[in-house]
Amino acid sequence: MGKRRLNKNVEVLMKKVMISILTGLVLLVVLLAGMSQYYQKIEKQWKTSDDDILTYDRHYVMISDDRSALWQSIYESAKKKAKEQNAYLEWMGKDMLSSFSTEENMKIAIASDVDGIILYPDGGEEEKELISQARENAIPVVTVFADSPDSRRISCVGINYYQMGDLYRDWLIQSLKPGHTKIMILVDSKIQEENANLLYSRLFQAAESGKNNEQTAAIEVHDIDAASTFDAEEVIRDIILDEEVMPDILICTNTVSTECAYQAIIDYNKVGNIEIAGYYVTDDILSAISKGIIPFDIAPDTEQTGQLCVEALNEYLQYGYVSNYYNVRLNSITRKNVWEYMEQQEE
Asked: Phi and psi at residue 273, in whole multiples of 5°?
């Protein structure tokens, strides 16, 4: 009996070892496949013809799982700035056949020995370890919008949430309803808790100081995943269709939630019942502002954002140091000045 039990234990142990080995091999195949696709893509983009091969002093990559118009604009601006500095910028994973996580793209970038990484972080522990690994391999990492301050990133290009809160606050004070006003803030789940709290506190102060004796106001914060349009649509639909939850004012702090909220109040016939304070500019958002459906919008300067990301990498590689944080310019858009932005979009 003892011998039989021993043999059975050995079999179980061997199975566990084989499963561990197979899991490791699968991960290695995924990583190698990603690198293969990556190198093939780079070769096609760098080789413009049979006899014309472009060369660059530096090779940067941008890693972001957000494919919204905002990030498209940031990438185009950063790519243009990089080209001016004789550097090549690749949006890693954007056009690959397989979808890779932020961590997998980080591993591929490090293994590829790129010169710098522009990262939209998710704040995970593995991601922080990979940022440290990149630094150990002399690859600087600049984070964008969402920060990772306790990692070894060299700099962050982001939004001043105090300023953002003030811009929403000034509009909110003028928008409080007679009687009771229900206000909901949709916050990107990638935003750090202290930034979300800062935004909330500025708006709470506005609601308290801006109301008169006959007004009351309540503010609620709701997290939303800006990387998933489907999830955002589901969350906003549930908010709008629940009469007890539905706010009078919905403040959206990312592009996805703004566009989803705009479409939802049209689809569910809530125009006039809910006022939206939006974020960023797309053709749909500008159209909604011009119609008064979105009375107020904040737009980060994406051209400046892309330029600052590349400048931070260049400065660090050239001098060995760089500013810890760069604030991105924020613009307010209403029905009064929306035409300026619509004309810019057409150019």
From this structure: -90, -30
